[in-house]
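To whoever picks this up:

The nightly regression suite flagged UDP:flavonoid glycosyltransferase YjiC (YdhE family) as changed. Nothing in the input moved, so I suspect the structure step. Input below, exactly as stored in the fixture:
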Amino acid sequence: MSTSYASKKILVVPLDWGLGHATRDIPLIYEILNAGCEVVIAAEGKHAALLQQEFPQLTILPLPGYRIQYAQKGWLFGWKIVQQIPKILRAIRYEQRWLQETVKTHGIHAVISDNRFGLYHQDIPCVFISHQLLIKTPFGGFTERLLQKLNYRYIRRYSACWIPDYAGDNNLSGILAHPAELPPHTTYLGCLSRFRMREGVTRLYDLLVLISGPEPQRSNLEKLILEQIKDLPLKALIVSGQPGTPRREQITPNVLQVNHLNAQELNEALLASGMVLSRSGYTTLMDLAKLNKKAILVPTPGQSEQVYLGEYLMEKGYFYSLPQEGFRLKQALEAAARFPFRSFQHELDMEQYKKVVRDFLQR
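Regenerated output under the current build:
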């Protein structure tokens, strides 16, 4: 371990919109620690619990998230988010005041903000992480251009912008992170995943189902899968995406359902599965790409970003995607078996982010 940065204290803050922001920050935190820096995390709720489990030795400061509420119906998703913009702006103003005080009281030397807009500071380097420079909405062009303008206004207040993707055509985010104009000081991180590839793992499951996302859509997908999987001749593991509530149930002799797996268990389950079924959340996509897994994507209804990513990555041949409405598991598995999957990895460096982090710490 290097000790050249031992006196430096880095604050890392993930957005509270799904656990993906917290989990994709894990490899960054490890790299900062490996460089000899001290890391302080700011989070609340399940995000704080997840990171405390991963890093029990680190200080986690309580910081309220944006606490987005989700619509009951997918088609209302966009309107529900728009209605909460004033609340989000208030949260941004609060976190800006909070940061000014925290830098003084905790001696913070730099900040890494994963998609939180108010964590910039005039006296220390601050990094903004996002794969959504263009924010997809159900309302199309004008709204997306307006949100991009607002997005860039905040990003320009940071010292740097890190994008968890690759710069070239072989990428995972499409137009979201490859718009015509990039913010200043932008660097592509490559793939950010806490998981590790390992060859020669014995296949235990024909299908691994990863259920995630906001309610009620998480429960809707779970119910749909449970109704349809029981009669299929396959060995499957269903992970229900409910950390903190231990449960393990043998649905059929060949289908096991668990509420949650820790990082190591999930890494092993992914490696031991022939096919994965999941949402098209961006962190999940990076995990699948890192482990070179074939997957069926079912975007969260109404979530424009996930719908776009599913369609984009299916067109590229990396994953097979179809909507939740009218979903039939048997037909989906048959179609995926015929789908001409392409490997995303090719010759990409899956640890590109490490050099970016080291360069940042040196500066």
